[in-house]
Amino acid sequence: MIQIKKVDGFGKLFMPTQQKSPGVRSLESAEEFFETRLEAIGFIFHGTVTEAKGKGGSGRSPTNLLHFARCAKLEKVGENETKIWFRSVRVALKHLDELIGHHRWKWCKICEREITQRILDEN
Asked: Would you list the domain boundaries of the chain?
């Protein structure tokens, strides 16, 4: 595939350098997780990812929680849990419902109060 350089109104060539970042990103390392929390933008899910249509394991089910990125409760997240960052709440809800299943994750109690208040304030 051939890439064509764009020309601005003054005849100068330029290459677009900014790429649209995805709305979903897996946080693989502790450093990525720390940086994402520091930025305090978006939402972070943590828990155990299983197939939405698969049967759950025996015993008590693991806690799959969605938080605001700035939530203080994220400091207690275990190293072995899956962590996923989302740019917006709509992307997070859709992705988690498809990936994990509608009733297999929930909001952090503190964050749930805040998101509920945001929804009420919008109306």
From this structure: 23-49+63-122
Cα–Cα distance, 49 to 26 (Å, whole number): 12
Max Cα separation, the chain?
A: 68
Cα–Cα dist 105/61, whole Å: 10
85-106, pLDDT tens digit by residue? 999 988 999 999 998 888 899 9
- Mean of the per-residue pLDDT values of the chain: 79
Kind and range of the H or E run holding 14: strand 13-14
Do 89 and 42 touch, CB atoms closer than 8 A? no
pLDDT at 18 over 50: no
Residues 6+ apart with CB under 8 A from 43: 66, 67, 68, 69, 85, 86, 88, 89, 92
| Residue 102 C-alpha from the chain's centroid | 16
